[in-house]
Design brief:
The protein is an alpha+beta fold. It is built from four helices and three strands; from the N terminus they run ααβαββα. Helices cover about 55% and strands about 15% of the residues. The protein has a three-stranded antiparallel sheet. The two termini are about 20 Å apart.
């Protein structure tokens, strides 16, 4: 069951799909990488809403690669701004593609 798996959030979800459902997500690996970028953005907003340029360089790189997200410099701290709602629709599309893959693989195994 999912509580027996280590990890948190989307990483635990991915591990559950791989280990418990026995579904390989290799066909949606590109989408999964994008989901991980959005996860970085989510964690950033949920936990501190500002990034230190030196300390958070890796996280900054991932967030900057999300289409439609701008990081605005405010006193050497970066804050995210959505340039439009398209990035949210992109996220929904990514999630749908991954869930479709899981559903289709699960239907084959049933």
């Amino acid at each position: 069951k999912i509580d027996d798996l280590n990890g948190k959030g989307v990483f635990k979800f991915k591990k559950y799909i791989n280990k418990v459902l026995n579904i390989d997500l290799k066909y949606v690996e590109k989408e999964w990488i994008e989901i991980e970028k959005f996860n970085q953005l989510r964690n950033f907003i949920a936990h501190n809403d500002q990034l230190d340029k030196k300390r958070d360089a890796g996280r900054i790189r991932k967030i900057r690669n999300i289409k439609g997200i701008k990081l605005v410099d405010e006193n050497n701290k970066l804050r995210p701004h959505f340039s439009d709602s398209n990035s949210l629709y992109d996220l929904i599309g990514l999630i749908n593609k991954i869930l479709d893959e899981v559903y289709n693989k699960r239907a084959v195994h049933s």
